[in-house]
Write a sequence for this structure.
């Protein structure tokens, strides 16, 4: 009887316990990068902007996620996805949703010097990924 009680307590602790990870990313390339092109863009840099998005998953099924408002064609810097394997797609979608919210709510064309903060909590059968992006409002005046 005592072994059954210990096994039940251990199973309960595993089900309720979990792990959490936070990752903050910034671009590793300096703003004075040696990129050469014949295209010139006039970008007006404004004040701080931010956005956030949360994606949750029960087992392998996404719940409460809105995939209809994602920013396409956004470079997140570094060329590395998220480091979360299969669930890295969830992190990328959360980044895209946070970028979309930041751009749409501020009326910006681009996010200048974006910084992403990723908070991932995993509770065995349930996980949550929250991404916050902050940067500066960029308005493109002309491209020649």
């Amino acid at each position: 009887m005592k072994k059954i009680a210990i096994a039940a307590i251990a199973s309960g602790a595993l089900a309720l316990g979990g792990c959490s990870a936070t990752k903050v990313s910034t671009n590793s390339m300096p703003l004075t990068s040696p990129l050469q092109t014949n295209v010139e863009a006039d970008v007006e840099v404004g004040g701080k902007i931010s956005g956030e998005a949360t994606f949750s998953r029960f087992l392998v099924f996404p719940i409460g996620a809105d995939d209809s408002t994602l920013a396409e064609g956004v470079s997140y810097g570094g060329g590395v996805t998220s480091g979360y394997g299969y669930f890295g797609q969830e992190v990328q979608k959360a980044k895209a949703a946070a970028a979309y919210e930041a751009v749409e709510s501020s009326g910006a064309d681009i996010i200048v010097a974006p910084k992403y903060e990723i908070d991932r909590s995993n509770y065995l059968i349930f996980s949550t990924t929250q991404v916050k992006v902050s940067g500066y409002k960029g308005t493109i005046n002309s491209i020649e």
The first helix runs from residue 2 to 16. The chain has a mean pLDDT of 76. The first strand starts at residue 19 and ends at 25.
